[in-house]
Write a structure and sequence with these properties.
This protein is α+β, with helices and mostly antiparallel strands and 51 residues long. Helices cover 45% and strands 24% of the residues. It has one domain.
């Protein structure tokens, strides 16, 4: 199955401390880049906790 990296999708962020759910429309390419940034941030947070 081929996915179009320029297809626009809706992303919804929602967690306990957030008053209102946040939604935005971004391309699949942007979503992939965002997920890579979040993964890097999680790695840095883990490293900071370990030291």
């Amino acid at each position: 199955m081929d996915l179009d990296p320029d297809e626009v999708v809706t992303v919804a962020l929602d967690w306990d401390d957030l008053e209102d759910r946040y939604t935005c429309r971004i391309s699949r390419r942007q979503l992939g880049e965002l997920l890579l940034v979040l993964d890097d941030m999680a790695d840095h947070a883990e490293e900071a906790e370990e030291s």
